[in-house]
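JOB MANIFEST
job_type = single_chain_structure
chain_count = 1
residues = 148
[input]
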Amino acid sequence: MRRLNPEKLYVEFRPGVTITEPIVGRKYTLTHSDMTADLFLTIGLQFAYEKINTMRDEVLAEWRTNNGFPFLFVYVYVDGQFGPTVSAVRNAIFRRELPLALEAVRYGDRRFFDAYPVLDNAPIWINFDSTNSEFNRFENWGTPNDYK
């Protein structure tokens, strides 16, 4: 697994979000530059849709609860602009790069996790969205603590 270079991570907090609030509804939009390998993490009450490009290689995540228990729900769009014909390649790329993306979220919002250490043990559920049933999956990827 490639490790996060903190100097290549840029974090933006949107209005209505602080380093510790809110928990439920806190949304992450992670994008990147293929040219510079910079990562851009936007933390807000809404996803930063304006930062999503036509490649659709962003990672979206948000804090949710189920029966009062928090979990991090992550969404990736496997098919992308090229449709299902390249789903296998995109699926492989997402699976290879997701540990880095989750490390970026964990590191980029580290003060939030410091304020709520219990969230380090919350499950991470990833929705791989695809029209192809082979790649359309909902999987548990551990906890934020696994990506410290």
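[summary]
Residues 6-147 form a domain with the Severin fold (CATH 3.40.20).
The chain has one domain: 6-147.
exit_status = 0
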